[in-house]
Amino acid sequence: MPESGPYEVREMGDYRVVLLEGEVDLSCSPRARKAILDSLESGCPVLVDLQAVSYIDSSGVASLVEGFQTARKRGLRFALVAVSEPAMSVLKLARLDQVFEIHPSLQEGIASS
Q: Where are the domains of the chain?
């Protein structure tokens, strides 16, 4: 399968929204990591939209954890929004649903700031 381009990052008000999609696995998690860390580099709070994620493995989860830790060090907000069922299953298995700030939708993630 050919490697697709970088994940889409949108600016929404004061936020950077990183839209992850498809399978976030070893082959594409470096791009997810780069999109998340580059967004945090901007100094803006970051929301990661997982609505279109059909599968996420430990390397994808590690990218989310690194984003979370980087945001904490910089005093920036970092939250997951619209988490798909497959992604939520993995987060719950790792008990990360207790660690990440998670909102049911992008709108609710922005509104709860």
A: 26-104
